[in-house]
Amino acid sequence: MKIRICLNFLNLRKNRTMAYSTIHDNYPLSREQIAFYEENRFIKLKHVLNPEEIQHFGALISEEVERLNKESKPLEERDTYGKAFLQIFNLWTQNEGIKELVLSKRLASIAAGLMGCEKVRIYHDQALFKEAGGGITPWHADQYYWPIDTDKTVTAWIPLQATPLEMGPLEFSAKSHQLLFGRDLEIGDESEVQLKQKLRINNFEHVVEPFDLGEVSFHSGWVFHRAGANQTEQTRKVMTVIYMDAEAKLKNPENQNQINDWNTWCPGAKIGEVINSPLNPVVG
């Protein structure tokens, strides 16, 4: 297994400086960036949002997380998943300001460009706040939870502050979307142990880097990833948005989690038909 801290992975982080970009603008992707994503199923992009946007949306999201958070147990009394982060879903339906970010042309254009889709839909968003002292996020693949009939799915992972290694940024297992083992594992202690061993045996390269302010990563539904513990005294605040091909259809659920997702994130969608519920608007 190759584990490295890669500060300039394949020189793809020498992107154009777009200090005055806005969420209403496209983010031009190079052929090299698209090819890198297609091969590895993740990519980190600089200057997706500018500092003013991070500050503005970070404040809105933090306020909503504080308002909606129902977690009452102290960290030491939670299980591994509970220690990983506080998570609040579909904030775009709760706050018009956050809706502007989640449904933005900028994020949607990147998602569509990476996946090679004409248009994308929202699956759902979620804030992931890893508290000071919060534990690891175990190895997992997101699409285990999703009753979606295509692998054209991608998650935008948007840190709301610069995120050093000590704060627990995402760690990606490059090219691991090729691995079928572990796709039936729910996130938790078992997935952490089994996938850590399997990824090592198969020699997939692990990439873990700090995130600069305004840097955003995109990863596919079947690439395996994790995050380290938050060893700082500051909450690691992250907003995520999950996109799927606008033509994605609902598949017959394969586990109880997919049934729950069907009922929660795409209510009324029918098996074999395009997922076009009111919670899954086309964006971009």
TrEMBL record:
Q: Which domain of life is it from?
A: Bacteria
> Single GO molecular-function term?
iron ion binding
Presence of keyword Oxidoreductase? yes
InterPro entries listed in its UniProt record: Phytyl_CoA_dOase-like
The cofactor named in the record is: Fe(2+)
> Does the keyword section mention Transport?
no
What Gene3D superfamilies does its record include? q2cbj1_9rhob like domain
Known Pfam families for this protein?
PhyH (PF05721)
Q: Could you list this entry's UniProt keywords, alphabetically sorted.
A: Dioxygenase, Oxidoreductase
Protein's name in the database: Phytanoyl-CoA dioxygenase (PhyH)
Q: Which organism is it from?
A: Cecembia lonarensis (strain CCUG 58316 / KCTC 22772 / LW9)
**Which lineage ranks, top first, belong to the organism behind this chain?**
Bacteria, Pseudomonadati, Bacteroidota, Cytophagia, Cytophagales
